[in-house]
Amino acid sequence: MRPQRNEPTRALLEAIAGALQGSLQSWRATVSEPARGGEVKGFDLEVTTAAGATVKHTVFVETDPEPGEREGVFRVTDPSTGQTVAVWLYPKDPALPALEATVFRSAAQRLLARIGIDVDQPHLKVVSYRPGRRAVIRVDAAPTPVFLKVVRPGRAEPLVARHQAFKDAGVLVPRVLGWSDDGLLALAALPGVEAQSICGELPDTFIAQVSALVQRIATVPSQERARRSLVERVDWYVDHVSQALPEYASHIEALGVRIDRLLARGRSAPVPEVTIHADLHVGQIFVDPADPGAITGVLDIDTAGSGDPADDAAALFAHLLVLGRHLDHSDRAPAAARVRELAVAWRGTWARPADPGFPDRVVAVTATHLLGHAIRQADTAGTTDLFLAAHGLVSEHEQSPAVHA
To answer: What is the pTM of this model?
Structure first.
């Protein structure tokens, strides 16, 4: 059996509310990601104070916290399990000390001025946030937007160097406007639009251009490892989808075993490693809206490094599969059909005479991505749909002639 992990319970959230000098009124789970030997979970809480006021908090719970004291972090014992967890309040992320200064207008204005960028009355929008890892904040100010990327202290300077290395290799990435040691980069906007935003208009040549982009990224010198592949944590995803869909638990468990088997077969010969993006999808790739087949740049290279090219192939493929389903549910059937055509075309690029295990690895990683998307769905139907998509993909691949050759 794969190990089960303790879930934060209402009793734990009530204990957290008590530590915040209030009582829990309502809560909503927002995020769950693997971290260290456990996970980090996010919750939106409504807490009633002793004075009767209702206060909203966004809290994050680490089930396997780092040892020692950290500023802004307190520990709570779950009354129902006896497990001690670490808790902190957004935006006081202990791993991202620059975050708090970037999400409030006056602080962001001072911070930008410190690195030589003067803006007047900026409008801020949090574009993305992964607790303990990174955040991106869009600053709308004349004449063009600026994007603040928050990373862990000590990561900004290597990331600046990585942007330069990509640029030197001919890969278009955002221009670095400034940076600071505490984990902040200011980036210029890329020209064009996200490929995802006009996915129904992407021509057949887009896939060829993505292949060329991946090949060019492979030429970037890299001294660091890429982000750890999702498939290395397939057990975690299997556990969490099983908890969300207990009626399918045995089938999900069996799927995890099949993913492990595919991965082992795909790695039975040495895996040729190159520089990869490690989070490649059509939300990261920008194109010219007047010529959607022309790529104008790629975002978020902070996870890039030396790794298995099957990870990039899988990330893009999984995202296309999920995007197609989302478009179907949004009554955008023509765009959904186009995205599925692109997925088929992308799958047609997987043949690697010098790396026969490549398709096995891509399918194993893709199925893991689909399980990851499954646990982020708002309802059971969405979770079930994506589990079945992962199951169907693995089954189809196992039955293909190439696998039995």
So the answer is: 0.89
173 and 204 in a single domain? The answer is no
**Interval 197-215: pLDDT, tens:** 999 999 999 999 999 999 9
Other beta carbons less than 10 A from residue 369's beta carbon: 24
Pair (153, 215) in one structural domain = no
Per the structure block, which two tokens stand in for 343?
């997925």
Distance CA 263, CA 352 (A): 16
* Cα–Cα dist 67/70, whole Å: 9
167 and 216 share a domain? no
Nearest alpha carbon to residue 22 among 70, 55, 59:
55
Domain range holding 62? 10-89
Is the Cβ–Cβ distance between 235 and 260 less than 8 Å? no
Q: How far apart are CA 187 and CA 178, in angstroms?
A: 7
Q: Six-digit token pair at 250? A: 């045995």
Looking at the structure, do residues 214 and 338 belong to the same domain, yes or no? yes
Residue 337 φ/ψ, nearest 5 degrees:
-65, -40
Q: Distance between CA 49 and CA 296 in Å, rounded?
A: 51
259-275 tens-digit pLDDT: 999 999 999 999 999 99
